[in-house]
Amino acid sequence: MTAETPATYGTQRRAAAQNRIAIIDAARELFTENPLVPLNDVAKRAGVGAGTLYRHFPTREDLILAAYQRDIDRLSITVDEVLARNSSAKEAFIEWFDVLAASIKIKHGLGDALHSAAAQSMVASAWGPASEAVGRLVDACVAEGTIAPGHDPSDIIMLMSFLWRVAPDEAGEAQGRRLIATVFSGLQASPE
C-alpha cells in the first residue's frame, strides 16, 4: 500500500466537494420536477455513482435538507443581483419572491423529511436571512414609492406565502400575478 501525498489528498477533497455540489444541484432540479424521484436518478443526473451519493447523503432526508439549505444560503445574495438586474424595485421584489416560491415548492410532496427536528430547525434558521432579504427589497420599494414605509418584512413573507401554494401551471401563474397586484395595492397604504 502506498501513502497518499498531500497533493493527492487535496485533489480527492476537491473532487469530493465538486461531487457534493453536483449532487445537490441535480437534486434541486429533479425534486422540483418530481419530489419522489429515485435517488439513483439524482446520482445519474449528477454524473456520479450511487455509492458516491450515499457517501455524501446517507438518507433521502439528508439530501433534501442539503438542497433546501443551498436555497436558504442564496437568499441574501440574490437580493442584490435581482435589484441590480431590474429597472424597478417592484419588479425586483416580484422576481425575488418568484425565485423564493420556486425553491419552497421543492418542499411540497417531500413528506416526513421536512417534518423532522433537523428540518424544522433549518426552516426556523431561514427566517432571519429571509426577513433581512425582504427588508432590503422593502426599503428599495419604499424609496421608489411602490410600498408605504412601516411594513414589517416578516408580515410580508407571511402575506406572500400564497406564491408557494398556487398551482405550478399557467393558471397558477396567472393567479399569482393577480394576487401580487392585490398585495402591492395593500402595501401602498401605511400599516396601522
UniProtKB/TrEMBL annotation:
DNA-binding region(s) in UniProt: 38-57
Any one Pfam family match given in the protein's UniProt record, by short name: TetR_N
Keywords: DNA-binding, Transcription, Transcription regulation
Domain HTH tetR-type: 17-75
PROSITE patterns: HTH_TETR_2 (PS50977)
Species of the source: Compostimonas suwonensis
Keyword flag Hydrolase: no
Protein name per its UniProtKB record: AcrR family transcriptional regulator
